[in-house]
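Justification of resources, computational component.

The compute hours requested in this renewal are based largely on the per-chain cost of generating structure records like the one below. Each record pairs the submitted sequence with a full structure-token output. That output is archived, and it is also reused by downstream analysis tasks.
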Amino acid sequence: MLTVKVLGSGCPNCKKLEAETRKALDAQPGIAYELVKVTDYADIAAYGVVSTPALVMNEQVVSSGRIPSGDQIVSWALEQQAN
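The structure output for this chain reads:
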């Protein structure tokens, strides 16, 4: 199962990233995932992220400081599943 984390304080962009991630991954029946929100600044900093929102898949930061497209999110998820 893919572990997906949305890093952010809960700002509107963080909420939008969470919604876009769920929408993109829910549309892919072959991707089983668990989505976790990380709002603690110390936990966010542990990933080396300086700009939120950020997206982490299987403990690898794939995006920070922006909201990636749904296609990009699915691409990263498929790449993580292949590893």
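The radius of gyration is 12 Å. Residues 21 and 82 are 19 Å apart (CA to CA).
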